[in-house]
């Protein structure tokens, strides 16, 4: 029984064969294999590799991989999408940009609240205990935290981070001056995703702004229960109030034409 | 990172297939999943960390297979298989990682965010890595791994045993 539990796991055997383990760990695993009379397992991997490549040669497999990759790319890039994911800021850089930010939802152009926003049942006005968004812009030396109604330009690269503040489900979307909606979380319409409930969390992609004029308005909607992104879409498009069980946080940015 | 997918496949394809076979226990499904693992690599080639490609591919293969197991309707063949099914099904039970697509988990993986708790569970409960070995593989402390498993254990039936 002890021998069985000490057996070198296949996972580690593969990593050992690939030469990716730290020297000490690799040596320890080789000793275990020898002691258990299983050193042959390493040699057998080489035989298995040759057998697989003979049965599934690259000339047969690679075209299929490329075909599937092209299909997946097409599905992930709807024609309407105009914010291109480009990179992700490091957590350190993002955190270094500062902690304090107070975001009040205003019309980015006039500084006054819009009717649409006043109708929303629960709009977060102060960051802290409530769910919120933090949007960073890539700079030459790192990143900067954007304030509400900050000026942004075509080509700016933005990293979106959220603070769920304990909320279980959420969705992030934005609308631009042309009325074009982009979903950031999830990245396509569907069900709101389960949020990382503590701390500040980065979305996996950053986004490069296109040339749409006027503004880019981000909306972070949260709830303790699952919901559909369709509810956000209607609010972004028509100013329809969100249902009472949904809370929202808006972050408008001013789009300056070059 | 520039990816020469052909040389990547030559050097690591068989390993990926072995991993998929181990988790899916069906040759045709394993071959199909192996293709998708390399598709994920191609799709995310710009954010690949080339320092440990085998580890990356094994992790990606695990997530791809877990996602497939979610929709499997077959009866588990043994205890490991049963545990895998339970781990794979966690997404649809509303846990901390719940309701996310496998692609989103992979996005996290490729963006350098903390490793999936599900991978940690597979490594420990199915692959039989010790807590120390799991910690080393996923870059967490042993206590961090233990904590992740503790939270997951509440959602797994008694099949996980000790943890």
* Proportion of residues in helical segments of chain A: 25-40%
Main beta-sheet strand count, sense and barrel state of chain A: 6 strands, mixed
How many E-type strands of chain A? 11
Please tell me the total number of domains of chain A.
Answer: 2
Oligomer: heterodimer
**Share in β-strands of chain B:** under 5%
In total, the number of domains of chain B comes to: 1
Q: How would you describe this protein?
A:
The complex is a heterodimer of chains A (258) and B (163). Chain A has helices at 2-5, 10-17, 23-35, 40-55, 58-76, 91-96, 115-119, 230-238, and strands at 84-85, 132-138, 143-145, 151-153, 157-163, 169-176, 181-185, 193-194, 200-208, 214-223, 247-256. Chain A is α+β, with helices and mostly antiparallel strands and 258 residues long. Chain A has two domains: 2-76, no CATH class; 84-256, Macroglobulin (MG2) domain (Immunoglobulin-like, Sandwich), CATH 2.60.40. In chain A, the strands form two sheets. In chain A, strands 4, 6, 7, 8, 10 and 11 form a six-stranded mixed β-sheet that branches. A five-stranded antiparallel β-sheet of chain A has the order 1-9-5-2-3. In chain A, a hairpin with a 4-residue loop joins strand 2 (132-138) and strand 3. Chain A is elongated, with a radius of gyration of 25 Å. Chain B is an all-alpha fold and 163 residues long. Chain B has one domain (5-160): Butyryl-CoA Dehydrogenase, subunit A, domain 3 (Up-down Bundle), CATH 1.20.140. Chain B has helices at 5-24, 27-43, 53-70, 79-89, 102-110, 117-126, 131-138, 142-153. In chain B, helix 1 packs across helix 2. Chain B is globular. The relative contact order of chain B is 0.11. The model of chain B is unreliable at 92-114 (pLDDT under 50). The chains are: A alpha+beta (258), B mainly alpha (163). Chains A and B meet through helix 2, helix 4, helix 5, strand 8 and strand 9 of A and helix 1, helix 2, helix 3, helix 5 and helix 7 of B.
